[in-house]
Amino acid sequence: MEHPRWNVWQATDARLTCDVAHVYGPRFTAALNAPPVSAFVADGSPVTVRAGSRM
């Protein structure tokens, strides 16, 4: 993945409000329903995703 450097800020009030099992699958329900350990906000940009290669 390639993109310009993003500005990043520490989030002070993070939460995920969605039907986790429906959106991400039931295996992620426990982890994504728990309070976040850390969170940040990035301004983002277009990205380039390239095919991976085995190491």
What are the salient characteristics of this protein?
55 residues, alpha+beta, two-stranded antiparallel ribbon, 2 strands, 18% helix
Task: Describe the structure in your own words.
It contains two helices and two strands. With 55 residues, the chain is an alpha+beta fold. It has a domain at 8-42. The chain has a two-stranded antiparallel ribbon with strand order 1-2. The longest helix is centred in the middle third of the chain and has 5 residues, at 20-24.
What does the secondary structure layout of this molecule look like, with pairings?
Layout: E1 8-10, H1 20-24, H2 29-33, E2 40-42
Antiparallel strand pairs: 1-2
**Count of helical stretches:** 2
Task: Give the strand order of the largest sheet, numbering strands 1, 2, ... along the chain.
Answer: 1-2
Radius of gyration: 15 Å
Return the structural class. alpha+beta
List unreliable stretches of 5+ residues. none
**Quaternary structure classification:** single chain
Summarize the structure.
The chain is α+β, with helices and mostly antiparallel strands and 55 residues long. It has helices at residues 20-24, 29-33; strands at 8-10, 40-42. It is flat and about 30 Å long.
